[in-house]
Design goal:
heterodimer, A: 152 residues, Immunoglobulin-like, 2 domains, three-stranded antiparallel beta sheet, 14% helix, B: 110 residues, four-stranded antiparallel beta sheet
């Protein structure tokens, strides 16, 4: 997974003339549709339903799309043999759908992350979890946004 | 905006050895959004936003956030770690203009 992203980073760096944005930001945050983003980041790997595994905490109605608190907690022993490697937060309707990718280590002790994110408009928000064995799990919440917060 | 880069870290007031501790951290940063001209085309420039957050404890990286412009202004993050030994917990924020903002707290056991 990381290898793929690294390769994309190199590709982006060499094609920097065509891309106005900084090369190192290319692999994750692109202005693209969510389908393209999912294909690019997860390379079409199957994502299983992880509603029971993942606790995604986000308001159902976000009055201010500029600051939406979200937290993700995953049931995981967090031992060196079985732990959560990555937590992705993806907002379908954002112009930059991939909000963040968190890389965890067993030293974290608990698969928990929180962040304040921007939401451009009403739409689903996903937490996608990659376990250390490479399996992907997804939990989704529909969030209503009263005032969008992404501007551009 | 002389405050840019001010890092705040909050840890619980009493920590016991072996506890899994939830930490909250924040940096003052504009997290510039994409700007468009009248035709709706993206204005090409280097947008200044945090693209990486690295958390280290006792010199070892425990959590890394790769972030995009979809993260709010003055980005706030929380995470957990297992407090095994007293020592420094460092959070480092990197932005796309080469800025590097660091905050640290000393983990001590009551």
């Amino acid at each position: 997974m990381l290898g793929t992203l690294g390769a994309l980073g190199v590709a982006a760096a060499s094609g920097v003339l065509a891309a106005p944005r900084p090369a190192r930001a290319q692999p994750l945050g692109l202005n693209e549709s969510v389908d393209v983003a999912m294909k690019r980041v997860f390379a079409g790997r199957p994502i299983r339903d992880g509603e029971s595994l993942i606790k995604l905490d986000i308001p159902l109605i976000a009055e201010n799309g500029a600051v939406v608190p979200v937290s993700v907690r995953v049931d995981s022993p967090m031992t060196p043999t079985s732990y959560v490697k990555h937590i992705y937060i993806v907002a379908d309707k954002n112009r930059i759908p991939v909000v963040t990718r968190v890389t965890l280590t067993p030293a974290a002790g608990q698969a928990f992350v929180g962040a304040n994110i921007r939401l451009g408009e009403t739409g689903p928000v996903h937490a996608i979890v990659e376990q250390s064995d490479g399996t992907l799990w997804r939990s989704t919440r529909e969030v209503k946004v009263t005032v969008g917060g992404c501007g551009g | 905006m002389s405050e840019i880069g001010k890092v705040r870290i909050r840890v619980p007031s009493s920590i016991k050895p072996g506890d899994v501790v939830q930490v909250r951290t924040l940096v003052i940063h504009p997290m510039e959004r994409i700007e468009r001209d009248a035709q709706g085309k993206i204005i090409p420039k280097t947008y200044n936003y945090i693209h990486k957050v690295v958390v280290t404890y006792l010199g070892k990286t425990i959590v890394t956030f790769d972030t995009t412009q979809s993260v709010s202004e003055n980005p706030f993050f929380s995470f957990a770690f297992r407090a095994t030994d007293p020592g420094p917990l460092k959070v480092e924020f990197l932005d796309t203009t080469g800025g590097r903002y660091e905050g640290a707290v000393d983990i001590t056991f009551a």
